[in-house]
Specification:
Elements (H helix, E strand, L loop, with lengths): L24 E6 L1 H5 L8 H16 L3 E6 L7 H6 L4 H25 L4 E5 L8 E2 L2 H9 L3 E5 L9 H12 L3 E6 L4 E2 L11 E2 L1 E3 H6 L7 H9 L4 E5 L5 H6 L6 E4 L2
Parallel strand pairs: 1-2, 1-6, 2-5, 3-4, 3-5, 6-10, 9-11
Antiparallel strand pairs: 7-8, 10-11
Helix pairs in contact: 2-4, 6-8
Length: 256
């Protein structure tokens, strides 16, 4: 647990020099809902500014950072598909929601002078660069933060799966899943007072118990490729830098 940053060579492709104990290259997965703040929809500019500030602090530490953002605060494709809309169309609309969030975060990061690039899985040249793996890695090596929008570019895949795929493609050391809760629990802590928080668990256990870490496809990809996931509370100021620096917070999901 205390040596998570000492990953296998296949996940240690970062070239930036972080501080002692820090991960060298991280992928941060943000839900769209976390950007909504109290209203539960749209984009809360105060929340957006706080997230940008936390990403900026990680960047200043010399940790290479990629972000994947969901779009649930704008549009939930799965919900519309459940009500009769064609699933592929609904998912494409959801992917466009992630691009809206990516542009908002890009704007917030530029305001605090963080070098940032938005890359989209669906080509839209006037909005962002097309996602090309080698170009994404080069941006990271040059000290730029990248936001990877539009999911995988294909319907039927969640942004959790997109985060797992992109993390593997860019050689990230870890996936940091920022949420509104401080880790993974045995049950919904808002509904079940007896819910127990896990400090760590194995992917196989998370899958078997259907714990809400990531969807099953994403978890299987992480398990098969031995990349850990840390679920933590992003709403607490400074937590992103703490977890990126190797501090033990949240729940760590490990291969096995």
């Amino acid at each position: 647990m205390n040596h998570l940053h000492a990953m296998s060579p296949s996940h240690s492709h970062g070239t930036a020099t972080g501080s002692s104990g820090s991960f060298r290259r991280i992928l941060v997965k943000l839900s769209g809902e976390i950007l909504a703040g109290a209203p539960g929809w749209g984009i809360d500019l105060d929340v957006l500014g706080n997230i940008a500030s936390q990403v900026g602090d990680v960047h200043k530490r010399g940790i290479e950072c990629a972000l994947v953002i969901g779009g649930g605060n704008i549009y939930r494709g799965v919900a519309s598909a459940a009500r009769g809309m064609d699933r592929a169309t609904a998912d494409q609309m959801g992917m466009l929601g992630t691009v809206i969030n990516a542009l908002a975060l890009q704007d917030a990061l530029e305001k605090i002078n963080v070098p940032i690039r938005v890359m989209t899985a669906i080509p839209m040249a006037s909005v962002g660069e097309p996602y090309i793996r080698r170009r994404a890695v080069r941006h990271l090596e040059k000290g730029r933060v990248i936001i990877l929008a539009a999911g995988t570019g294909h319907p039927y895949f969640t942004t959790d799966t997109a985060a797992a795929l992109r993390a593997l493609e860019i050689g990230a050391d870890v996936i940091l899943k920022g949420t509104k809760v401080d880790g993974v629990y045995s049950a919904d802590p808002m509904k079940d007072m007896s819910a127990v928080k896990f400090e760590s668990l194995k992917f196989s256990e998370a899958l078997a118990r259907q714990l809400k870490v990531m969807d099953a496809t994403a978890l299987s990809m992480c398990m098969d490729n031995s990349i850990p996931v840390i679920v933590f509370d992003l709403t607490t100021d400074g937590n992103l830098l703490r977890v990126a620096s190797g501090e033990k917070i949240g729940t760590t999901v490990l291969p096995g």
